[in-house]
Amino acid sequence: MNAMPSEVGQIVWRHRNVIDVDCFTREELYFLLDQARHMENVMDRPIKKVPVLRGKMAVNLFFENSTRTRVSFELAEKMLSADVVNWSVSGSSHAKGETMRDTAWTLEAMGADIVVMRHGAVGSAQYLASKLKRAIVLNAGDGTHAHPTQALLDLYTAWKHLGNLEGKKIALVGDVLHSRVARSDIIAFKTIGCDVVLSGPPTMMPREINSLGCRYEKDPKKAVENADMVYLLRIQKERQQDGLFPSVDEYHRWWGADDDLMKYAKPGALAMHPGPINRGVEIASEVADGHQSVILEQVRSGVAIRMALLYLCGGGAR
Amino acid sequence: MTVLREKAKLMSSDDLNRVIKRIAHEMVEQNKGTENMILVGIHRRGVYLARRLQKIIEEVEGTKVPCGELDITLYRDDLTMLFEQPMVHSTRMPQDISGKNIYLVDDVLYTGRTVRAALEALVDLGRPSSVKLAVIIDRGHRELPIHADMCGKNVPTSKNEVIEVKVTELDGKDEVVICERDAQ
């Protein structure tokens, strides 16, 4: 592991809600990464708990299923000593027709301080934040819009391995069009000064690639060429029915990451994936389990970065 | 806005270094040697002071006592009252602290709340067989039942005053000054 940038200056953290990564400056991103490093340190202790959010109530409000993200947030909240309530859509009042606004007010009436929300609708996190008077909102994914904590944990994982990320190249391969992960990652890696190249079936590319400040290469070998990081996006198999790619096998042959594709990247380039992985679709097992894979580290980074955000946004006086 | 006006110099560089040397000797004396000893500096200046103590003890005793650093931010009792969350620094222990004699090092002892937080943080890291506290300045006004086992100097202060222990590593010079807050 490379030496990490050692001295990060104190900055005034002005964020309460985190809806997307576009609210952060480069300086704030590095500050956050530095704080996450100290949070990760807590995870290695015999007692994995610090009392910093004692007395705060965190509600994980999940309208879409996502065990991984929910568990990651829950662990982060618990390690900071917050009281955790998991509110999931199945059997909730939402199914009975309660509006999100009423849900928001109900949560606040119950004393929620922090609301982590995953929802299928674009803009839902922003909307929720606008309806809450006191509690803060951390977006855990809203439709195809944003997944800020995923992008931040990716940044953190990359930073731990590569140090200063300025000028580093990342290739994002897969379904960019439907991916909130891709969208947030592009913004995060661009903000920190990386060169971002996209690849994948043309049917799965957004039209406004140029306005995102990145390049598209249909041929993944060209996209991956000389890259420091190769990021494989999850392919939802049901997209095949939408006619966006002919078959899973064909997708894998063209855009799936195997050792052969990784050879085009820089030696020792990182193989990254937001999980859960589809072995034999967007990633071959030889890459997922290979020495370049940091996929499990990403999972660990997720807890650390969420702890840092919870601490910086969710602590303190209201 | 308040500004700090320097009122008097309490220690010169030589004075401060003599105090550190004396405390190093007291530590080894109290510990009856360097066995089982771990120095732990509290961020930020305590970390540099602990490293200096380590160096002096090595010169005198010929053993390098393990030296750790402790950040108490996540254990502060006033976080829910602050509007801006303070920056977290690193906590690093050179080894398992269970069964060891911990010598906590900080620059100034005031209300005792930092030390209380440090004790809580330490207990989460292991079960030391003892914890002792060394400070450069004890300025009084304790709000908790905490005292220093080794102290450079007792300085009676008013609550409107601030003691600044400066170390070369962070501040470019070694000295201790007393300042007064001037409301502007």
Write the layout of secondary structure elements.
The complex is a heterodimer of chains A (318) and B (184).
Chain A: H1 26-43, E1 57-62, H2 67-79, E2 83-88, H3 100-109, E3 114-119, H4 124-131, E4 136-142, H5 148-162, E5 169-173, H6 180-191, E6 195-199, E7 215-216, H7 220-224, E8 229-232, H8 248-255, H9 259-262, E9 270-272, H10 285-288, H11 295-314
Parallel strand pairs in A: 1-2, 1-3, 3-4, 5-6, 5-8, 6-7, 8-9
Chain B: E1 2-11, H1 13-31, E2 37-42, H2 45-61, E3 67-70, E4 101-109, H3 113-125, E5 130-138, E6 150-154, E7 161-166, H4 168-171, E8 175-183
Parallel strand pairs in B: 2-3, 2-4, 4-5, 5-6
Antiparallel strand pairs in B: 1-8, 7-8
Helix pairs in contact in B: 1-2
Describe this protein's structure.
The N terminus of chain A is likely disordered. Chain A has two domains: 143 residues, Rossmann fold (3-Layer(aba) Sandwich), CATH 3.40.50.1370; 151 residues, Rossmann fold, CATH 3.40.50. Helix content of chain A is 37%, strand content 14%. In chain A, helix 2 crosses helix 11 and helix 5 packs across helix 6. Chain A is an alpha/beta fold and 318 residues long. In chain A, the strands form two sheets. In chain A, strands 7-6-5-8-9 form a five-stranded parallel beta sheet. In chain A, strands 2-1-3-4 form a four-stranded parallel beta sheet, with helices on both faces. Chain B is of the alpha/beta class and 184 residues long. Chain B has a single domain, classed as Rossmann fold. In chain B, 29% of the residues lie in helices and 32% in strands. In chain B, the strands form two sheets. A five-stranded parallel beta sheet of chain B has the order 3-2-4-5-6. In chain B, strands 1-8-7 form a three-stranded antiparallel beta sheet. In chain B, helix 1 crosses helix 2. Chain B is globular, with a radius of gyration of 16 Å. Chains A and B meet through helix 1 of A and helix 3 of B.
